[in-house]
From TrEMBL:
Residue ranges of every copy of the 3-hydroxyisobutyrate dehydrogenase-like NAD-binding domain listed in the record: 167-289
Descriptive protein name: NAD(P)-dependent oxidoreductase
Domain 6-phosphogluconate dehydrogenase NADP-binding per the UniProt entry, residue ranges: 6-159
Gene Ontology molecular function, alphabetical: NAD binding; NADP binding; oxidoreductase activity
Annotated keywords: NAD, Oxidoreductase
Superkingdom in the source lineage: Bacteria
Stored Gene3D superfamilies: N-(1-d-carboxylethyl)-l-norvaline Dehydrogenase, domain 2, NAD(P)-binding Rossmann-like Domain
Pfam families for the chain: NAD_binding_11 (PF14833), NAD_binding_2 (PF03446)
InterPro entries given in the database record: 6-PGluconate_DH-like_C_sf (IPR008927), 6PGD_dom2 (IPR013328), 6PGDH_NADP-bd (IPR006115), HIBADH-like_NADP-bd (IPR029154), HIBADH-related (IPR015815), NAD(P)-bd_dom_sf (IPR036291)
Active-site residues from the entry: K173
Database matches in PANTHER family: 3-HYDROXYISOBUTYRATE DEHYDROGENASE-LIKE 1, MITOCHONDRIAL-RELATED
Length: 295
């Protein structure tokens, strides 16, 4: 059975995800607050533009969203003219945004009153993975609803893991991002130390990637060559990593846990924002170790 889908949020991730679904024969309806973004998706075969959110919800069995933050998710789902108000029984909403579990639970409770299911489908990966259909999905929500949307997730990604009830995937993603953010700062500092001490960076890179030690990470392997070339074009913006890290800190505070390392990592990223690096790739935190540290 062909599942019709909608996509709200045709941005850096939403556009390639919409493209992947449409190329695989999924009937798509899209909407974005920015008409120019909607128009980009509207050029694809099998994709039609909705005039508003309600029209999209009426045309799609599964509604994907990929939005910037809690406030936008709340507005798009729960605001006037939002998704929840237009839901009819049996619809499934799938939010791929990195947001707090609190807003996800609020949306899930509201969707349930409409006899619909809301899933948090947190994504691991960035633009290259969206373009190649290799996103990793961590999903919270009803297991039966996950079975229904699995064929769509299989088109978009290479990995799906059910984390538990609504909001569970959000927490997994937030904690995951603490490791990514801390690694980015640690790599930046290590590379700067190599350069400052006149240590052979090619040798260091080879040792970390191939000698079998615990310093290796995919981030190190993929980002260090870009950093050496001065390429900080955004695959995942520093602003977004800062946002994700602060969500994780909020989670820690909610459960009464101190996170001193995370506090320091966030401070470093905020310094990057203050130096005009927010729209750069988050690896641009390395610029802070260079003279001036400016964008």
């Amino acid at each position: 059975m062909i599942i019709s889908a909608g996509f709200i949020g045709i941005g850096a991730m939403g556009l390639p995800m919409t493209t992947m679904l449409a190329k695989n024969g999924v009937p798509m309806t899209v909407w974005d607050a920015n008409p120019e973004q909607s128009a980009k998706a509207g050029q694809l075969d099998g994709v039609r533009l909705a005039e508003n959110i309600a029209e999209l919800v009426g045309a799609a069995e599964v509604i994907f969203t990929c939005l910037p933050n809690d406030q936008v998710v709340e507005s798009v789902y729960l605001g006037d003219g939002g998704i929840v108000g237009a839901l009819t029984p049996g619809r499934i909403t799938v939010d791929c945004s990195t947001v707090s579990s609190k807003i996800t639970q609020r949306v899930a409770d509201a969707a349930k009153k409409q006899d619909s299911q809301h899933m948090d489908a947190s994504m691991l990966g960035s633009i290259p993975q969206a373009e190649s259909g290799e996103i990793g999905f961590v999903v919270g929500g009803d297991p039966a609803a996950l079975q229904k949307i699995q064929p769509l997730l299989d088109i978009l990604g290479r990995f799906t893991k059910h984390a538990g009830p609504a909001g569970s995937a959000n927490r997994i993603k937030m904690i995951h991002q603490t490791l990514v953010a801390a690694n980015a700062v640690a790599v930046a500092e290590a590379i700067a130390l190599c350069e400052a001490s006149d240590t052979d960076l090619d040798c260091f890179y080879d040792v970390v990637c191939n000698a079998g030690g615990f310093a290796y990470s995919r981030y190190f392997e993929k980002r260090v060559p870009r950093m050496r070339d001065g390429d900080f074009s955004p695959l995942f913006m520093l602003d977004l990593m800062t946002k994700d890290s602060k969500l994780a800190r909020d989670l820690a505070r909610d459960v009464g846990m101190s996170a001193p390392l995370l506090d320091q990592v966030i401070a470093r990223f905020q310094e990057g924002q203050a130096n005009g690096l927010g729209a750069k790739d988050f690896s641009a935190v390395a610029r802070l170790y260079q003279s001036g540290g400016k964008a």
